Amino acid sequence: MIRGKAMHTVDMRPASGTGWFDEYNSVITDDEFQQFSQLIYATAGIKLTPIKKTMLAARLRKRLRATNRTSFSAYLDHLLSPEGRRAELVPMLDAVSTNKTNFFREPGHYDQLVNQVLPELLRRRGGDCSAPLRIWSAGCATGEEPYTLAMVMADFCATRPGLDFSILATDLSTGALATARLATYEDFKVDEIPVSFRHKYMMRGIGEKRGWHRVVPRLRSKVTFRRLNFMDEEFGLDRSVDILFCRNVIIYFDRDTQVGLFRKFYRQLAPGGYLFIGHSETLQGIVGQMRRVGTALYQKKV
User: Fold this and answer.
1) Is the pLDDT reported for residue 35 higher than 90?
2) 21 — pLDDT class (breaks 50, 70, 90)
3) From CA 25, how far away is CA 9, in angstroms rounded?
4) Residues contacting 106, CB < 8 A, separation 6+
């Protein structure tokens, strides 16, 4: 997000009442911030502390423009109305969600996946490769994580005939998911992908697509994207998963929300399944049925 500096120029926009507002003078009050925070917490589990007030106001301003509201209070009234909840709640959550990610983020996890987790899962199966491994990338943002997983898994499966995999990638943000489904990324983003993987799994754009790369079709077909709100009572997943990546997501939740979320993750994992979390996160004191087996890596007890 680019924040412009206030400029001492004549405002040529229409006056208030025609759907415009002065973004430099539009201020969110403490009471409005509290009401927005409560709504966001109740619907998405994201805890906003008072130091996030300026950030929240900046992210919400584009929704004021989009809905033709001239103040935060008018926008809040719209959000709390039946029509607003139906039409605007998801775009509002899109606007306030953080979708920072990159390819091969926290790369040590992919080494653990290849050298520890996958061999152990196959050992538990007695070497049987007939059933595909099921992986969930929870909080996938714009898709870099699930596509990284697809690259690593494709490379691993290439040396094990019959072994296959599927990846479910979910996120709260519809905008982020739209980008993920396109699977198209600027060159500077794919620089983080090892050269050998980049040559095998990314297509370089030419002509008007120069400066962009796209994930190859055979990997895109392995990833299914879906919107999912962690605060939903049930995730609605019809099958358990062998591997769950949920990294750098719970930092936005308070302790009670974290506890509830990891209990749901636990139920979704297959016996002996693995959970990867961010290196700055911990399950300590949350789930006693999980055992720590590596750095930010946990296994569901059988």
Assistant:
1) yes
2) very low
3) 14
4) 247, 278, 279, 296
Show the domains of the chain with their CATH numbers. Answer: 30-96 (1.10.155.10), 108-300 (3.40.50.150)
The one catalytic residue in 63, 171, 220, 247 is 171
Is there a catalytic annotation at residue 63?
no
Given the residues 59, 65, 85, 181, the one annotated as active site? 59
Backbone angles phi, psi at 212, to 5 degrees: -130, 155
Q: What percent of the chain has a predicted confidence (pLDDT) above 90?
A: 61
Assess whether 227 carries a catalytic annotation: no
**Which residue, chain included where needed, has tokens 């925070």?**
37
